[in-house]
Amino acid sequence: MRAAVMWGPGKPFEVQEIDIAAPAPGCVAVDLHSCGVCASDLSLTTAFGQPTPVVLGHEGAGIVTEVGAGVSSVRAGDHVVLVWVPPCGTCAPCRRGDDYLCANRRSSADARAGRAARPSPLSVGGTSIHQGMATSTFAERTVVPANAVVRIDDDVPFPVAAMMGCAVPTGVGAALRSAKVRPGDDVAVIGCGAVGLNSVMGAVVAGAARVVAVDPLPERRALARTVGASESLEPEGLGDLRNMDVVIDAVGAPTTVSQAWTAVRRGGTVTVVGAGRPDQVVEINAYELFHDDKRLTGSFHGGISMHRDLPILVGLWRNGRLPIEKLIDSTADLSRINEVVAAQQSGKALRIVMTPRP
């Protein structure tokens, strides 16, 4: 099958034929019809310890083609979204309903922590290829545990379904689940990439009275207005923003976290959904933390349980509350992945969804 292989940290992708094993017991094979390039995919090998060679990608949707022994949750022919935080169902976070924080999730940090990675089904010429995020959606097919897919209605277009694998739940969930935006709130969103724009839409769904979108690119600010932001600002204007009920930081840099902290009112909430780097530190004044009673929260995967919440997201999309199509610039064959990466990193495109199967 075709896959986009990264042979060294931060190297360009090489689209080539590789081998993939049949699904083992408890696993399923999925033919991938759409996949998105998320910014975190591109930093895994350079900032988060993902070994190479690797097939990256965690935002994908397709059709189950084969199931391993013991699998009863899905069957061949089902349309599914890949889940990059597959819940074990037995650890403490899963038992309390926080399965997006599953303690038994496998990730690129396993090697750093000394944990054994699950054997990869991918190889080329006898050389094992790592499975990025344990999903590897930059390929025509993937093999994953059955709990790493969730059924989605057949009428959802694959590009929209792929976005529901990461950008949509992470951004919408940051507003609805993590920040707990309430009707009438004044909300600011820093960073209008795919996750930030979904946070804008989530704040609108939650009933925010005012939604301020902050981004350096005028095209992103304009797009934020089309999906529900009431106003927009360049980052230079953040210094004048005050008394917000909620600020969602979709960048995650120390500077933006500090700016969000200043912009939120006493008793307000700052939610950081942007993926900060492991070596970055945010300093908060201890007295202000106590005196102003502000809340600083993280938001991993938007606090979304895919197996529980995906039908909610689909319902909001189907009824026009989440206009996800407006966030998709175009589609492109997998062979153009390096062009897609360049376009998204430069800001020329927000999200170009790739079609692995020609």
Automatic annotation (TrEMBL):
<keyword id="KW-0862">Zinc</keyword>
<keyword id="KW-0560">Oxidoreductase</keyword>
<keyword id="KW-0520">NAD</keyword>
<keyword id="KW-0479">Metal-binding</keyword>
<dbReference type="Pfam" id="PF08240">
    <property type="entry name" value="ADH_N"/>
</dbReference>
<dbReference type="InterPro" id="IPR013154">
    <property type="entry name" value="ADH-like_N"/>
</dbReference>
<dbReference type="InterPro" id="IPR020843">
    <property type="entry name" value="ER"/>
</dbReference>
<dbReference type="InterPro" id="IPR011032">
    <property type="entry name" value="GroES-like_sf"/>
</dbReference>
<comment type="similarity">
    <text>Belongs to the zinc-containing alcohol dehydrogenase family.</text>
</comment>
<dbReference type="GO" id="GO:0051903">
    <property type="term" value="F:S-(hydroxymethyl)glutathione dehydrogenase [NAD(P)+] activity"/>
</dbReference>
<dbReference type="Pfam" id="PF00107">
    <property type="entry name" value="ADH_zinc_N"/>
</dbReference>
<dbReference type="InterPro" id="IPR013149">
    <property type="entry name" value="ADH-like_C"/>
</dbReference>
<dbReference type="GO" id="GO:0005829">
    <property type="term" value="C:cytosol"/>
</dbReference>
<dbReference type="GO" id="GO:0046294">
    <property type="term" value="P:formaldehyde catabolic process"/>
</dbReference>
<protein>
    <submittedName>
        <fullName>Alcohol dehydrogenase</fullName>
    </submittedName>
</protein>
<dbReference type="GO" id="GO:0008270">
    <property type="term" value="F:zinc ion binding"/>
</dbReference>
<feature type="domain" description="Enoyl reductase (ER)">
    <location>
        <begin position="8"/>
        <end position="354"/>
    </location>
</feature>
<dbReference type="InterPro" id="IPR036291">
    <property type="entry name" value="NAD(P)-bd_dom_sf"/>
</dbReference>
<dbReference type="InterPro" id="IPR002328">
    <property type="entry name" value="ADH_Zn_CS"/>
</dbReference>
